[in-house]
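Aim 2 progress. For 9459_t:CDS:1, the working sequence is reproduced below.
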Amino acid sequence: MYSSLFSSPPFNKFAGFILYGLLSVALITLAQEDSIGNENPKSCIVEPLEPVEEANKQKTIGYVQLFGTGLPKIPWNNYDYINVIAFPKDGDGKGYSIYYPNDENKLKPIDDLRESRTKAKATTKILLSIRNYNVDQWPQDDANYQRIITDTINTINDHELDGIDIEYPGMRGSLYVIGNLKEIDYFNIETYHNALYQNLKAPPAEVNNYKSYPNSPLDVYKKAYKDWRNIGVDSKKIIMGVDFGNTLQMVSNETIQQIQTVEFPKSTYDFKKLDMQNQIQQIRNFCPNAESNIYSWPWKYLSNIVLNSTDEFCTINTTNPKWTRKFDPTYNSGTPWLYNLVEPEFSFYLYVSYEDISSLRSKLDFAMTNSIGGMSISDVSHDDNKTTLSNFMQPIRGFSVPSSGSSSSSNGSGNGKSKSSPNDSVIIKKNKAGLIAGSVIGVIFGLLLLGSCSYMYRQKILLKPDAGYINSESSSNRVVSSTTIQHDRRIIDHLTIE
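Predicted structure tokens for this construct:
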């Protein structure tokens, strides 16, 4: 019976139709994949993650420089905490102080910041952040340490701040033990400016043989989180830090590599020749014998000069064609970098490792998947005027990414969790045309398959001896079923770890 079915002329014609249909679908698919591969290299992403659910909302923390720079524009609704970076030592020569009882105007920037928050009708908390490198200036005696403690408490109380963030040096302070971890609300783990730390591992004979490194590689980001989890720190207390300031170095290698020797001496190049001369600043180096400098080139400048904002910063700005953009999955770094020949005669290159949407997405995905406490930004003023990067981070707070140029709503809510793999270090920029074509192909294939099954089933029923017989026995009905301590305290809220 079945042999006659599959050998009948109608079925032969239908089988031929199915065969040619599937062949056409395969050819269209191959052509489409080739087109997508040519237009969209696996180096960029434009679509954000889905917001986390209400129960999994995380925090965003932003640092601001107020003293000597003026009050920056802050997208208040993008942040749960703003940490005010504290001040240099006083001028009396007797030690470090952050409190000026004889000159209230010196702390006026903090009051201006609070007023800015009030005007924005934001609920963001403001903390006082004590920088770790101030420790070098602190006199080593009990009297001055007590002065520091008193000044800190007075500043918080007098200016109605919400707590304190202490930047604890992860390298220079590594010999000291934090005796009471339970008193810390959040541990802010900084994983950027990686070149500073990597180059310290060089033997003394190679102290000047610096190398370029990714600014904030994904593997370092993950390892830092896991190290703190392994010593028993609650995942909800861990804040992972990222930097919008980026790193800029001079290299002398003709190959475009993310990790290479930095041989350019720091004292001979005149940066006034460069367009970014007023946009970069030297990052404080831990090694006094270093022969090469590392600079910061903030995203707000870099993205405007080098990258094409109309293409979600995935390509180079046509006004600066000498730059080359790369995205490196090697060592699971998941970070982009830029390269530019600035001195053809001497073959000197600018190397920039930076944070963009592509690299942020993989870090956000990891943070959301592991339900950590949140993420922090080293300086909120380094974002561009449309707050592109901080906007992109809003899904960890349960909010959708706001439209360009506006910050997230403070009363939004999440509606789902990302299904992306936290292990992805390279994310593909999707092509809308490809998605549409893929959907059409899927529909065609589904219709062909449905038609084939329907035809075969119909032929089988008609050829059965008992065709037309109705079974009156009803099937039985089935039902398938499946079944912290709050405290009112502000002092010592955050601890930042480098």
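The chain is about 30% helix and 15% strand. This observation will guide construct design in the next reporting period.
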